[in-house]
């Protein structure tokens, strides 16, 4: 009994950690079966999506708490129109990542509804839900295998041509080509260590291969130089193209083109609109924007001083 208990308990801990970090949720389908908190309804149908059509995603007056005594989301209500990008910004702890965890149905909400193409995510199978969503997490955990395998994982049966095509779209092909073993280079803990940005590009390539109807992009928090930032912007455009996308953003400059920006504060949406609309509002978003512009200016000045030495 004890022997059995330990591994199961370990899986439980691991599962909770993964839920928390949003890292590589997709590769843990098997592990998810261990999760008894979330269950499919009996005879639940699969999510029905029209061929090649991106669905609407709707959060309808969602209230949520992880623990009984502390409510995290209050009446969160928004719609991501099919094929468009909604970005979420706000202070640390305001509830941004919680939205993506809920869309993936890692937790059930206390009241309200989350719908995809008009179907409540609690009424469809978790498998079909997660098949429809691609996630680019902040921290991608790579398999101890080749870089090619790590990309191909996005789609069982992918050919080498498929892999190369998405690697090019994710701007990582040239880097891979420059490695002595190319796509056969071993990565992960026991192989080549990739930088955070490189790992994220592998995740982007994998997601492009999966070609999901819905995409969640959890932008890394680490500071980036402006060249890398432009690269992320280009990549975002690439994966969000005609896909329903939810972007958890830390750098406002990466989401100026989003069709909708939600500003969260302490679990509530306090402002919403396009970049221009929110700037005109001269509220919380405009303040965040000014602050980031100021910080960028200081950073650029430091770069210039550094370069001069
Ligand atoms: P960041 O920008 O730092 O990633 P965030 O806006 O994404 O923050 P969330 O991760 O959504 O914030 O967290 C919202 C709140 O929920 C925080 O106060 C956090 O402490 C709390 N929280 C997150 N995960 C759990 C959990 N598993 N159990 C209890 N509380 C949690």
Automatic annotation (TrEMBL):
Residues 57-291 form the ABC transporter domain. The chain crosses the membrane at residues 1-15. It is found in: Cell membrane. It comes from the Bacteria. This is ABC transporter ATP-binding protein/permease. It comes from Undibacterium flavidum.
